[in-house]
Write a structure and sequence with these properties.
With 456 residues, this protein is of the alpha/beta class. The chain is built from 15 helices and 16 strands. A hairpin with a 2-residue loop joins strand 1 and strand 2 (65-68). The structure holds pyridoxal-5'-phosphate (PLP). It holds the Pfam family Aminotran_3.
Length: 456
């Protein structure tokens, strides 16, 4: 196997940073001018982690392409980290939203669209009862609240390396068996071990032990970890998790916000999972803020039983703008026209092409990397085999190498998701788009493994 030297990575990274800076004078100017007005100097504090020397400012985006304020066009394989995974501003959504804005935007009353959406999700997931929020974070929070209310237990369990939004109880890490706030988590309200148990993904024995204490209301899980790099479930993981959660009377919440890449009903539909609750946010409104959560008939009945029939009151779940008319019109339009089986079949075929191109380069150069795919979501990692836990991912992540690959792509017209090497294909992503990525990826690997160039 060729050795990729640290010096080579650093030299190329410096070159790419310089190229990035000279190609983005307007973004650089906007970043510098706006920094004093923002918390942490950027529009959203987490943007401090973006891979480029300063963040790009966007002019516009359509389909699978995005254009920055300096007029540079990119094939967008990041797609708003799933928020735009069905393409930017699909025509059908634009028309529906234009129509909806003339009819009033939020009323604190239901619309027919909400009823249609609930019925459609029931069909796709097998869970009959639904509600709405604006973000997946809120959907997860509300699902966990319902779980605590009906089980009378205080804690939730999450897997190490998870991300379920800014839901306080989930921002936890497992450090040598102890539950700690995850790195960068700002101002946790109480020590995390009071609210949360954490175990490694794919560790069914640890899950069984953690649930045996009888204090966990729900397990909140993605079908695969997608936010610390992609960690796929072992073959027996989901069946085992379901059996163990049932054994301990613990509710299972499946968060499909990213794994909706597996198909129109997410991984749940594609692989026959049987969650008690299902959460989906980000892409379902096509970029208009919207999220849903659904529950089984049993959970719904247990929740109903908590309400006083004479004087029903529900606080702690909801939100004034949740289920607003515009969001619901967007979700209904997306479900009926864009988040369809036909589009998924196309997205899968393009994602397969992306995966195969990356694999061909890895094999050609015999480098110790791998590529994984979950439907329309593709990710490569810098180990020979896919990792089975978040800890393994962390121990094998090479920040400089990742930054180089991201910048190398960006400087040549392809945007991949920052923080790890994740890419999505949309109904607008073409074979030419992914071939461009694969050529750039191959060129980068060629340069990285070119020992002669380093010596020179
Ligand atoms: C699996 C998962 N759940 C929930 C969220 C939170 O989504 P939002 O930031 O829209 O609330 C994310 C965000 O990345 C996510 O990846």
């Amino acid at each position: 196997m060729p050795l990729i030297s640290r010096q080579r990575i650093r030299n190329l990274l410096e070159r790419e940073k310089t190229a990035f800076e000279s190609a983005h004078p307007t973004s650089r100017k906007l970043a510098a001018e706006s920094a004093p007005h923002f918390i942490a100097g950027v529009q959203m504090p987490w943007l401090v982690e973006w891979e480029s020397p300063f963040t790009l400012f966007v002019d516009k985006a359509k389909g699978a392409q995005i254009t920055d304020v300096d007029g540079n066009d990119y094939v967008d394989l990041c797609l708003g980290d799933t928020g735009a995974m069905f393409g930017h501003s699909p025509d059908v959504l634009v028309a529906a939203v234009r129509d909806a804005v003339d009819q009033g935007l939020t009323y604190m009353l239901p619309t027919e669209d909400g009823a249609r959406i609930a019925a459609e999700f029931a069909k796709r997931t097998g869970l009959p009862r639904w509600s709405f929020t604006l973000t997946a974070t809120d959907a997860n929070r509300f699902a966990a609240r319902i779980a605590r209310a009906i089980t009378g237990r205080p804690k939730i369990l999450v897997f190490d390396g998870c991300y379920h939004g800014t839901h306080d109880e989930t921002l936890a890490r497992l450090d040598d068996g102890r539950v700690n706030p995850r790195e960068g988590s700002v101002g946790p309200p109480v020590p995390l071990e009071q609210t949360t148990r954490v175990v490694e993904f794919n560790d069914l024995a640890a899950l069984d032990e953690a649930l045996s204490h009888g204090d966990v209301a729900c397990v909140l899980a993605e079908p695969a970890l997608t936010n610390c790099g992609m960690v796929l479930p072992d073959d027996d993981f989901h069946a085992g998790m379901r059996e163990i959660t049932r054994k301990h009377g613990v509710l299972l919440i499946i968060d499909e916000t990213h794994t909706i890449s597996s198909g129109p009903g997410g991984y749940t539909q594609a692989y026959g999972l049987e969650p008690d609750m299902f959460v989906l946010g980000k892409p379902i409104g096509g970029g208009i803020p919207a999220a849903v959560y659904g529950v089984s008939e049993d959970i719904a009945n247990r929740f109903d039983a908590l309400l006083d029939p004479e004087h029903p009151v529900v606080v702690g779940i909801g939100g004034t703008l949740s289920g607003n008319a515009l969001s619901l019109r967007a979700v209904r339009t997306m479900l009926e026209n864009v988040i369809t089986e036909e589009n998924f079949q196309y997205m899968f075929s393009i994602a397969e092409r992306l995966e195969e191109g990356i694999r061909a380069t890895i094999e050609k150069h015999n480098i110790p990397w791998h590529v994984s795919r979950m439907g329309a979501r593709v990710e490569y990692g810098h180990t020979v085999k896919p990792r089975r836990t978040a800890r393994e991912v962390e121990d094998t992540t090479d920040g400089e190498l990742e930054q180089l690959l991201h910048l190398y792509c960006l400087n040549r017209g392809v945007m991949i998701t920052p923080f790890h090497n994740m890419m999505l294909t949309s109904p607008s992503t073409t074979a030419e788009h992914v071939d461009l990525h694969n050529r750039i990826f191959a060129d980068c690997v060629e340069e990285l493994t070119n020992v002669a160039a380093e010596v020179a």
